[in-house]
Each structure stands twice: as structure tokens, then as C-alpha cells.
Write a sequence for this structure.
């Protein structure tokens, strides 16, 4: 719910003038009641708006936490798939499927060919 700040400011300015006049006339108790009532009226939309905002933030947080959990599960699945694929396509495995022997190069293969 959008709050019209200018309207609230105008209402408070008018209330300030009325309270000042009441104080000049010596009606302090009435001035205090009037000021507090106007302040309550002016701030109530702000309080409602803050409550709605807090609820929206809580909903957003829950939604993001659910999405994070889903993404975490998807990432775990992808990691498992990558591990499965990397196992399936290793040179040793490919050679074994075709009846070939495979020997990895020595750690310093350049020295051997050199």
C-alpha cells in the first residue's frame, strides 16, 4: 500500500497549527490529545506498510531458501552425473571395452622421448 507522504506532511502541519492555537488559548490537555490523535492517524499507514513489508520479506526469504535447496539438489545430481560420465569415458575404460591394453605415460614422458 503506497503512502502519500505529502498528504501526511500536510496533515501534520495543519495539526501543528491547531495545537499551537490551542496552547495559546490555554487548552493544553485538548492540544495534547489532538496532537497525539493526529500523530497516530498519520503514522498508522506507515505501521501497516512496515508490517506488510516485513511479511513480504519473510515470504521472499522462505522462497529463496526453498530455491537454494532445490539448486543444491540439482548441483548434487549434476556432480553425480559428471562423476558417472568421467568414469565411463576414461581412456582405460574405452580401451578395455575394445579389448585394447592401456598404459599411462610415465610422469616424465618428455625425458623418455627426448
Amino acid at each position: 500500500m503506497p503512502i502519500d507522504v505529502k498528504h501526511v506532511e500536510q496533515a501534520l502541519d495543519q495539526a501543528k497549527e491547531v495545537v499551537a492555537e490551542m496552547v495559546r488559548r490555554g487548552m493544553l490537555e485538548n492540544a495534547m490529545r489532538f496532537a497525539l490523535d493526529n500523530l497516530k492517524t498519520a503514522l498508522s499507514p506507515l505501521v501497516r506498510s512496515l508490517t506488510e513489508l516485513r511479511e513480504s520479506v519473510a515470504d521472499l526469504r522462505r522462497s529463496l531458501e526453498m530455491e537454494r535447496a532445490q539448486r543444491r539438489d540439482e548441483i548434487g545430481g549434476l556432480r553425480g552425473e559428471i562423476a558417472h560420465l568421467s568414469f565411463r569415458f576414461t581412456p582405460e575404460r574405452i580401451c578395455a571395452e575394445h579389448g585394447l591394453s592401456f598404459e599411462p605415460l610415465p610422469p616424465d614422458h618428455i625425458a623418455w622421448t627426448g
User: Anything to note?
Assistant: The chain has one domain: 5-102. Residues 5-102 form one domain. DSSP finds four helices and no strands in the chain. The radius of gyration is 37 Å.
